[in-house]
Design goal:
This protein is of the alpha+beta class. About 30% of the residues lie in helices and about 25% in strands. The structure holds 2-acetamido-2-deoxy-beta-D-glucopyranose (2 copies). Its cofactor is L-ascorbate.
């Protein structure tokens, strides 16, 4: 505006007026600039604060102790499972040995080729339709028909037998076999504190093989909640993926924990097997 007006000034005082106006403009521009500078600085501070908070939030949702990711959520491990061998611990020596079942090879295996995404999602639907009552964080599922309808349990059993060279006929379902739903709300009882490191065979003597069937996705359905194998030299994680099955020998060679869930809800089913027929529980397929 000022510039347009300036062009219209004519006569002897024009240059002086021009100078004044120009000076005024310069001053105004300078003060605008100062104001702008102030605003820019403010914006920068706001941006930095947001970025900092975002980074903190991001970092707090990450577990800095994780040193290696075995399988990412986005990867599809199919049809061949991915296996990681580890030397067996001596835990099994304290129990009667059952040839063809008791672990002689130990390790961890991950596969996305045993249970389809659809089957996993159907399990969640069963849950929400009231087929299961979810009053607690952990629900016992031995009487849950959903597991047996498509013989998910049988397929997991076969996959474990194949990976560890066992006779599937000599493996028995044992308890606890349960459904877990974990969100960021703190667990109320010690039992529910899933993030503590533990060894399944120490906690439940009858366990020989533990399997986990994931029903939701790390990263999109929840954050945190990664499964972590705690080895002497590394913390190795498996990122949950809907339909992913992860299984491992239950002794101290597979000390593990689950990272705290920081956002969303993590659904999983734990299916446990024993070699000891005395600890067998009835098949969910045959109530
Ligand atoms: C977690 O689940 C419990 C049980 O359903 C619910 O009461 C609680 O509000 C949930 N927390 C969050 C953060 O969604
Ligand atoms: C693994 O994580 C635990 C805690 O979660 C930590 O104390 C330990 O130092 C980590 N181990 C390695 C090798 O980073």
């Amino acid at each position: 505006m000022a510039v347009t007006r300036l062009r219209n000034i004519k006569g002897p005082h024009a240059t002086e007026i021009e100078r004044k106006i120009k000076r005024g403009n310069t001053l105004r521009q300078a003060s605008w600039w100062r104001g702008y500078r102030g605003l820019a600085a403010l914006l920068l501070v706001v941006l930095c604060t947001c970025a900092g908070a975002g980074l903190l939030l991001h970092l707090s949702s990450l577990d800095s102790d994780i040193t290696e990711t075995l399988v990412r959520q986005r990867e599809l491990v199919s049809p061949q499972p991915r296996a990681y061998g580890v030397p067996c611990s001596e835990d099994y020596d304290n129990y009667k040995r059952y040839p063809g079942c008791t672990p002689q090879k130990c390790g961890r295996v991950v596969t996305d080729g045993v249970v389809t995404r659809e089957e996993a999602l159907a399990s969640i639907l069963d849950l929400h339709s009231g087929a299961l009552s979810m009053g607690k964080q952990f629900v016992n599922i031995y009487r849950w028909e959903g597991v047996s309808v498509s013989n998910v349990r049988g397929r997991i059993q076969a996959a474990i037998a194949e990976a560890f060279g066992l006779d599937p006929e000599l493996m028995y379902l044992t308890k606890p076999t349960f459904f877990s739903r974990i969100n960021s709300t703190a667990a109320r009882t010690q039992h529910d504190e899933y993030w503590h490191p533990h060894i399944d065979k120490v906690t439940y003597g009858s366990f020989d093989y533990t399997s986990l069937l994931y029903l939701s996705d790390y990263g999109s359905d929840f954050t945190g909640g990664r499964f972590i194998f705690m080895d002497h030299n590394a913390n190795r994680t498996v990122e949950p993926r809907t339909g992913r099955v992860s299984f491992f020998s239950s002794g101290s060679e597979n000390l593990h924990r689950v990272e705290k869930v920081t956002w969303g809800t993590r659904y999983a089913i734990t299916v446990s097997f024993t070699c000891d027929p005395e600890h067998a529980i009835s098949d969910p397929a045959l109530p």
